[in-house]
Protein backbone atom coordinates (compact mmCIF):
# COMPACT_ATOMS: atom_id res chain seq x y z
CA UNK A 1 0.00 0.00 0.00
CA UNK A 2 1.30 3.46 -0.91
CA UNK A 3 2.37 5.69 2.05
CA UNK A 4 -0.21 8.32 1.06
CA UNK A 5 -2.96 5.75 1.60
CA UNK A 6 -1.41 4.02 4.59
CA UNK A 7 -1.49 7.07 6.86
CA UNK A 8 -5.24 7.74 6.50
CA UNK A 9 -5.92 4.05 7.09
CA UNK A 10 -3.80 4.22 10.26
CA UNK A 11 -5.85 7.10 11.65
CA UNK A 12 -9.12 5.44 10.73
CA UNK A 13 -8.02 2.22 12.42
CA UNK A 14 -7.18 4.08 15.64
CA UNK A 15 -10.49 5.93 15.72
CA UNK A 16 -12.50 2.80 14.91
CA UNK A 17 -10.69 0.96 17.69
CA UNK A 18 -11.81 3.65 20.12
CA UNK A 19 -15.36 3.56 18.84
CA UNK A 20 -15.62 -0.23 18.76
CA UNK A 21 -14.25 -1.08 22.20
CA UNK A 22 -16.71 -3.23 24.19
CA UNK A 23 -18.89 -1.16 26.46
CA UNK A 24 -18.03 -3.23 29.52
CA UNK A 25 -14.29 -2.89 29.10
CA UNK A 26 -13.67 0.59 27.66
CA UNK A 27 -12.95 3.55 29.90
CA UNK A 28 -15.12 6.63 29.25
CA UNK A 29 -13.83 9.00 26.59
CA UNK A 30 -12.88 11.82 28.92
CA UNK A 31 -10.48 14.70 29.00
CA UNK A 32 -7.76 16.31 26.96
CA UNK A 33 -4.74 14.00 26.86
CA UNK A 34 -2.07 15.94 24.92
CA UNK A 35 0.53 13.18 25.04
CA UNK A 36 -1.94 10.82 23.31
CA UNK A 37 -3.53 13.24 20.83
CA UNK A 38 -0.57 15.42 19.81
CA UNK A 39 1.37 12.84 17.73
CA UNK A 40 -1.62 12.16 15.47
CA UNK A 41 -2.35 15.87 14.99
CA UNK A 42 1.31 16.54 14.20
CA UNK A 43 1.39 13.66 11.71
CA UNK A 44 -1.62 14.76 9.67
CA UNK A 45 -1.43 18.55 10.06
CA UNK A 46 2.32 19.02 9.46
CA UNK A 47 1.68 20.83 6.16
CA UNK A 48 -0.49 23.42 7.87
CA UNK A 49 -3.44 22.80 5.55
CA UNK A 50 -6.99 21.78 6.59
CA UNK A 51 -6.93 18.53 4.64
CA UNK A 52 -9.45 15.80 5.43
CA UNK A 53 -7.21 13.74 7.71
CA UNK A 54 -5.92 16.79 9.56
CA UNK A 55 -9.51 17.86 10.14
CA UNK A 56 -10.40 14.40 11.40
CA UNK A 57 -7.54 14.50 13.92
CA UNK A 58 -8.39 18.03 15.11
CA UNK A 59 -12.14 17.45 15.40
CA UNK A 60 -11.56 14.20 17.27
CA UNK A 61 -9.14 15.90 19.70
CA UNK A 62 -11.61 18.71 20.37
CA UNK A 63 -14.51 16.26 20.79
CA UNK A 64 -12.87 14.05 23.39
CA UNK A 65 -10.92 16.92 24.97
CA UNK A 66 -13.79 19.22 25.86
CA UNK A 67 -13.52 21.71 23.01
CA UNK A 68 -11.01 23.73 21.02
CA UNK A 69 -9.17 24.72 24.20
CA UNK A 70 -7.65 21.23 24.13
CA UNK A 71 -5.84 22.18 20.91
CA UNK A 72 -4.04 24.94 22.79
CA UNK A 73 -2.66 22.35 25.19
CA UNK A 74 -1.56 20.11 22.34
CA UNK A 75 0.62 22.89 20.94
CA UNK A 76 3.02 22.56 23.87
CA UNK A 77 3.79 18.91 23.09
CA UNK A 78 7.09 18.01 21.40
CA UNK A 79 5.58 16.60 18.16
CA UNK A 80 3.79 19.88 17.46
CA UNK A 81 6.72 22.00 18.58
CA UNK A 82 8.88 20.12 16.06
CA UNK A 83 6.21 20.59 13.41
CA UNK A 84 6.19 24.33 14.20
CA UNK A 85 2.44 24.32 14.78
CA UNK A 86 1.44 26.62 17.64
CA UNK A 87 -1.92 27.05 19.32
CA UNK A 88 -2.98 29.80 16.92
CA UNK A 89 -2.10 27.57 13.95
CA UNK A 90 -4.20 24.70 15.30
CA UNK A 91 -7.15 26.98 16.01
CA UNK A 92 -6.90 28.40 12.47
CA UNK A 93 -6.95 24.92 11.00
CA UNK A 94 -9.77 23.85 13.29
CA UNK A 95 -11.82 26.90 12.32
CA UNK A 96 -11.31 26.08 8.63
CA UNK A 97 -12.41 22.49 9.25
CA UNK A 98 -15.54 23.61 11.10
CA UNK A 99 -16.52 26.39 8.74
CA UNK A 100 -14.82 29.29 10.49
CA UNK A 101 -16.35 28.82 13.96
CA UNK A 102 -13.55 28.93 16.53
CA UNK A 103 -11.66 31.39 18.72
CA UNK A 104 -8.76 33.06 16.94
CA UNK A 105 -6.24 32.73 19.79
CA UNK A 106 -5.80 30.51 22.82
CA UNK A 107 -6.27 33.54 25.07
CA UNK A 108 -9.86 33.82 23.81
CA UNK A 109 -10.77 30.56 25.53
CA UNK A 110 -10.04 31.67 29.10
CA UNK A 111 -9.83 28.97 31.74
CA UNK A 112 -10.22 25.33 30.83
CA UNK A 113 -13.51 23.70 31.75
CA UNK A 114 -14.01 20.07 32.66
CA UNK A 115 -15.24 18.23 29.54
CA UNK A 116 -18.34 16.07 29.68
CA UNK A 117 -17.95 12.34 30.21
CA UNK A 118 -19.20 10.05 27.44
CA UNK A 119 -21.18 7.41 29.33
CA UNK A 120 -22.75 5.89 26.24
CA UNK A 121 -20.14 3.14 26.05
CA UNK A 122 -19.88 3.92 22.34
CA UNK A 123 -17.35 6.76 21.97
CA UNK A 124 -20.34 8.56 20.44
CA UNK A 125 -18.39 11.74 19.67
CA UNK A 126 -15.96 9.73 17.56
CA UNK A 127 -18.81 8.07 15.64
CA UNK A 128 -20.47 11.44 15.01
CA UNK A 129 -17.19 12.97 13.78
CA UNK A 130 -16.59 10.03 11.45
CA UNK A 131 -20.06 10.28 9.94
CA UNK A 132 -19.75 14.03 9.41
CA UNK A 133 -16.36 13.74 7.72
CA UNK A 134 -16.82 10.51 5.75
CA UNK A 135 -20.54 10.40 4.95
CA UNK A 136 -20.95 14.08 4.04
CA UNK A 137 -23.38 16.62 5.41
CA UNK A 138 -26.99 16.30 4.32
CA UNK A 139 -27.47 17.85 0.88
CA UNK A 140 -23.75 18.09 0.07
CA UNK A 141 -22.27 16.58 -3.10
CA UNK A 142 -20.39 13.99 -1.04
CA UNK A 143 -23.66 12.71 0.45
CA UNK A 144 -25.43 12.14 -2.90
CA UNK A 145 -23.57 9.01 -4.02
CA UNK A 146 -23.24 5.57 -2.43
CA UNK A 147 -21.51 5.55 0.96
CA UNK A 148 -17.74 5.08 0.85
CA UNK A 149 -15.94 2.42 2.93
CA UNK A 150 -14.90 4.73 5.83
CA UNK A 151 -18.49 5.98 6.07
CA UNK A 152 -19.78 2.40 6.16
CA UNK A 153 -17.23 1.49 8.85
CA UNK A 154 -18.70 4.17 11.10
CA UNK A 155 -22.34 3.49 10.25
CA UNK A 156 -22.14 -0.30 10.56
CA UNK A 157 -20.03 0.05 13.72
CA UNK A 158 -22.76 2.21 15.25
CA UNK A 159 -25.21 -0.71 15.13
CA UNK A 160 -23.64 -2.37 18.17
CA UNK A 161 -25.09 -1.85 21.62
CA UNK A 162 -23.47 0.43 24.15
CA UNK A 163 -24.28 1.06 27.80
CA UNK A 164 -27.62 -0.24 29.09
CA UNK A 165 -28.23 -2.02 25.78
CA UNK A 166 -28.86 1.20 23.83
CA UNK A 167 -27.59 0.98 20.22
CA UNK A 168 -24.73 3.36 19.56
CA UNK A 169 -26.38 5.05 16.57
CA UNK A 170 -29.06 6.39 18.94
CA UNK A 171 -26.49 8.75 20.48
CA UNK A 172 -25.22 10.26 17.23
CA UNK A 173 -28.17 12.65 16.56
CA UNK A 174 -27.56 14.30 19.93
CA UNK A 175 -24.07 15.28 18.74
CA UNK A 176 -24.71 15.88 15.02
CA UNK A 177 -27.84 17.55 13.68
CA UNK A 178 -27.03 16.23 10.20
CA UNK A 179 -27.50 12.59 11.20
CA UNK A 180 -30.87 11.58 12.59
CA UNK A 181 -31.71 7.91 13.05
CA UNK A 182 -33.60 7.78 9.73
CA UNK A 183 -30.57 8.95 7.78
CA UNK A 184 -28.23 6.60 9.63
CA UNK A 185 -30.66 3.75 8.96
CA UNK A 186 -30.70 4.59 5.24
CA UNK A 187 -26.91 4.66 5.12
CA UNK A 188 -26.80 1.35 6.97
CA UNK A 189 -29.13 -0.24 4.43
CA UNK A 190 -26.94 0.97 1.56
CA UNK A 191 -23.74 -0.23 3.23
CA UNK A 192 -25.15 -3.67 4.07
CA UNK A 193 -26.63 -4.11 0.59
CA UNK A 194 -23.19 -3.50 -0.92
CA UNK A 195 -21.23 -5.76 1.43
CA UNK A 196 -23.65 -8.47 2.56
CA UNK A 197 -26.86 -8.64 0.51
CA UNK A 198 -28.24 -11.43 2.72
CA UNK A 199 -28.02 -9.41 5.94
CA UNK A 200 -30.95 -7.62 7.55
CA UNK A 201 -30.77 -4.09 6.07
CA UNK A 202 -32.56 -2.29 8.90
CA UNK A 203 -31.40 -0.81 12.18
CA UNK A 204 -33.47 -1.36 15.31
CA UNK A 205 -34.48 2.30 15.56
CA UNK A 206 -37.31 1.40 17.95
CA UNK A 207 -34.64 0.68 20.59
CA UNK A 208 -33.62 4.35 20.77
CA UNK A 209 -34.91 6.16 23.86
CA UNK A 210 -37.02 9.27 23.44
CA UNK A 211 -35.17 12.50 22.67
CA UNK A 212 -35.46 13.45 26.34
CA UNK A 213 -33.72 10.29 27.47
CA UNK A 214 -30.82 9.84 25.05
Characterization of the model:
This is Bifunctional inhibitor/plant lipid transfer protein/seed storage helical domain-containing protein. One of its GO terms (molecular function) is lipid binding. Residues 16-106 form the Bifunctional inhibitor/plant lipid transfer protein/seed storage helical domain. This protein is mostly helical and 214 residues long. It is built from 10 helices and no strands. The N and C termini lie far apart (41 Å).
Helix content: 40-55%
Could you tell me the strand content as a percent range? under 5%
Give the overall form.
elongated
The count of β-strands is: 0
User: How many separate helices?
Assistant: 10
Spans with pLDDT under 50 lasting ≥5 residues? 16-29, 110-115
Structural class: mainly alpha
Gyration radius (Cα, Å) is 17 Å
Order of helices and strands: HHHHHHHHHH
